[in-house]
Write a structure and sequence with these properties.
9 helices; 5-stranded antiparallel sheet; Immunoglobulin-like; 2 domains; NODB_dom; globular; hydrolase activity, acting on carbon-nitrogen (but not peptide) bonds; TIM Barrel; 18 strands
């Protein structure tokens, strides 16, 4: 695997979190938030290759701290039995069984597609049939074994081109095209924490790429990993921590969505969300932020006939709604204006 330097990560990630321009009439401003719940930054923890120490060490730490993660597995390398998994050398690909992968799913972790046999899809695969097998057959196996089709794809060796990208995009919502390698024995919790702090201050999404813990490629010390996650957990007010698939899907959908048919009243606003993605791809609620002229004391929101949860903070109203799912109406009151 190849690690991408932090500077490159921030340049690419910045492109993916470009803010949606607010729509306003002077009294009311309306915008789609960069991230869920209008968090300042976002981070995803991804694990490559299906290593045994990821299952035995990383997953329990994350479960204890209630932090989600994405495990990119290699279906053609998954161990058939527990005996086979335990017999593999430390850090070897596919050191987990399908039963163990299903356990990860049951605990809320995301399983992503890392190619059927981890071949470099640009230099090692030449025939279209083999390319489709490495990408699409691999995804079908994951669905068959876990019951869930993988939303996310991770390019083996982080290598891809236009042809490979088009095949991946046919059936996967998102693919990992930038990452921050976290590992090596000289990595400290302070280093990782500083990277995370920059994500918040620069309002960006960071994707951590992790391989081995204790042993294997670029091994990360478990105590360093747990110390960092404890630090990240304390910053959840400003940081959206979620799977690669969830954050990537939000961003892809956000960037394809436009606020349309806006009607602004004295104490109300209504609009529709038009998304350019196909109906099958539109699944993730987007956070909408409405800024009014005065402090709001009460508000209610609906999309179609469904009521939506509302969060109020001073002059700001925040709601989550799904594009192309009906007209959204938000009404509010100030201290002397009431909603029927």
């Amino acid at each position: 695997m190849y690690r991408i330097c932090l500077g490159l990560l921030l340049i690419i990630a910045g492109f993916y979190v470009k803010a949606t321009e607010p729509v306003h009439d002077g009294l009311v401003k309306l915008r789609i938030s960069n991230f869920k719940d209008d968090k300042a930054g976002a981070v995803s923890y991804t694990f490559d290759d299906g290593l045994r120490n990821q299952y035995l060490i990383a997953a329990p730490i994350m479960e204890k701290l209630q932090i989600p993660g994405t495990f990119f597995i290699i279906p053609g390398q998954v161990s058939a039995t527990l005996q086979e998994a335990e017999a593999k050398k430390p850090g070897a690909w596919g050191g987990v069984t399908w039963d163990e992968i299903r356990t990860l799913v049951a605990k809320g972790f995301e399983i992503g597609n890392h190619g059927y046999n981890h071949k470099n899809l640009v230099t090692q695969v030449k025939e279209p049939e083999e390319l489709e097998n490495e990408i699409e057959n691999s995804a079908d196996i994951i669905r068959r074994e876990t019951g869930i089709f993988p939303v996310s794809f991770c390019y083996p060796y982080n290598s891809f081109n236009e042809q490979v990208g088009k095949i991946v995009e046919r059936r996967h919502m998102v693919a990992r095209i930038f990452q921050q390698g976290i590992g090596a024995r000289d990595t400290t919790a302070k280093n990782i924490n500083q990277w995370m702090d920059k994500l918040i201050s620069r309002r960006e999404w960071g994707v951590a790429m992790i391989h081995g813990l204790t042993d294997g490629f670029d091994p990360l010390r478990p105590d360093v990993f747990e110390s960092h996650l404890t630090y990240a957990k304390k910053h959840e007010k400003d940081l959206w921590i979620d799977t690669f698939g969830n954050i990537g899907s939000y961003i892809k959908q956000r960037d394809a969505t436009t606020i349309k048919e806006i009607e602004i009243g004295t104490n109300s606003v209504s609009f529709t969300l038009d998304c350019k993605l196909s109906k099958k791809q539109v699944k993730v609620p987007l956070t909408l932020v409405i800024l009014t002229e005065n402090k709001v004391t009460e508000a209610k929101a609906t999309q179609g006939r469904e009521s939506l949860p509302v969060t109020i903070s001073n002059k700001q109203i925040m709601i989550d709604c799904v594009p192309d799912s009906g007209r959204v109406t938000v009404e509010w009151k100030f201290s002397d204006v009431y909603i029927d």
